[in-house]
Amino acid sequence: MTQAAEPIGLSTNDGSDRSLDRDCTTLSRHVLQQFQTFTPEAQDLSALMNRIGLAGKLVARRLSRAGLMEGVLGFTGELNVQGESVKKMDVYANDVFISVFKQSGLVCRLASEEMENPYYIPENCPLGRYTLLYDPIDGSSNTDTNLSLGSIFAIRQQKGEDLDHSASDLLASGREQIAAGYILYGPSTMLVYSIGKGVHSFTLDPSLGEFILTEENMRIPTQGSVYSVNEGNFWQWEESFREYIRYVHRTEGYSARYSGAMVSDIHRVLVQGGVFLYPGTVQKPEGKLRLLYESAPLAFLIEQAGGRATTGHEDILDVIPSKLHQRTPLIIGGREDVAKVESFIQNGH
Ligand code: AHG
Ligand code: MN
Ligand code: MN
Fold this sequence. Notes:
Blueprint: H1 16-24, H2 27-35, H3 40-64, E1 75-79, E2 85-87, H4 88-102, E3 107-112, E4 119-120, E5 130-138, E6 149-157, E7 177-185, E8 189-194, E9 200-205, E10 210-215, E11 226-228, H5 239-250, E12 255-256, H6 262-272, E13 275-278, H7 291-304, E14 308-310, E15 330-333, H8 335-347
Helix pairs in contact: 2-3, 3-4, 5-8
């Protein structure tokens, strides 16, 4: 006897409903589900995340063919505001984020590692209530060797009119972020985000051209075996960091993992546990990583997953920068792993 077909998505006997539901949980739908309402804020954030996803797809597309195209790999010959050599992919990705937000109507300002001052989109400014802060390509030294890269982003609500274009309202703590995350360009492209309601990961399905939900409410293990740090800087650090490294060397069970792109290193730590460190040095106590578009967005995400992020003396999310491109030391990961590093900084053991 033949049975009447179940409506799509409601059948329960062969698992096809779950896979169909999974395939349909796109990024923008997920953001709306998180709010459980269709308020203007929910719709704005859904549209913003959709745009960030589009930027990620454009960057991923270019990276996937980098070895086959002219003008993708290598340096531009310029130095950025940080004094670092700029790669062609840094410029491309920086411009991609600007162009996807030009049409959005929602973003008035974009502040990036690659631009000395924020970029204003005047036609959006009367209404554009949001600012995007981003590192367009994180780990750009990996670009020419076909290794993992990332993009980091944070969204803040604009405070005040900013008529003089000083962007002074951005000099506020990471607790002002309303969304943050990263895109990881690895064997597959993943997008991990939080709007302050847990951490959720998506994988780009190239056949659909959509980021599809991979894991909801990710939790970082409180303790893990990985420590992720550039040990080449060992003799430039304060003694407390050297003591911590000596401790992991003599303690069974630790593994060093360091890729040169903190998005991929921190993604490993998020999924499997451990700690990522980029300490200051005696000569540069502020370290290398930039607060507003590197450390603070990742701190927001890792705290949302149950982990911690600190300078060693202060939670990263409490640091108030005095300038746009301010740097901070960063220790980020599972709660117990971060506490262990802190105890070396604060008590010497
Ligand atoms: P960026 O490519 O945006 O300048 O960031 C690179 C950062 C971070 O991703 C990475 O962990 C770290 O710098 C690598 O620096 P070192 O080569 O000094 O270890
Ligand atoms: Mn970076
Ligand atoms: Mn970068």
